[in-house]
Amino acid sequence: MFGLRTLHRNKTLKYGVPMLLLVVGGSFGLREFSQIRYDAQKIKKRLDPSLAAKLNPQKQAVILEEEYEKLKEKNLDEWKNIRGPRPWEDSREYQEQQRQKMSKGS
To answer: TM segments (predicted)?
Structure first.
């Protein structure tokens, strides 16, 4: 006598089993997603040696001096400010206009 009729009449079996599966399955899913999160954090903690050198305060002065030497070599007197396109402007069309202005000015 325990058949489909009993399953339809008993609301505990009708709604309880899927809910139990959802809760148990959700806990396994959350465990997997949280494991991925912690693995990604471990990877981020490992820094490249060059990046670690940039973050080290003692080596920071050396890096600043190197950048200063690079800037001294560049000719900043002939620098021109070129405006980029606005978000509502077509970038290719604007670049073409800039090229035409540069060729006329030269």
So the answer is: 12-30
Cβ(13)–Cβ(21) under 8 Å?
Answer: no
CA–centroid distance for 94 within its chain: 29
102 vs 83: CA distance, rounded Å? 13
- What value does the mean pLDDT take over residues 53-62? 66
Dihedral sign from CA coordinates of 63, 64, 66, 70: positive
Burial class (CB in 10 A: 0-12, 13-18, 19+), 66: exposed
C-alpha 58/C-alpha 26 separation (Å) is: 48
Please give the model's pTM, rounded to 2 decimal places: 0.30
**Tokens coding 68:** 């200063």
Query: What's residue 1's pLDDT?
Result: 46
pLDDT tens profile 3-16: 555 555 677 677 77
- Spell out the domain ranges in the chain: 1-45, 48-76
Q: Which two tokens stand for residue 4?
A: 């489909």
Q: Which residue has the higher pLDDT, 100 or 58?
A: 100
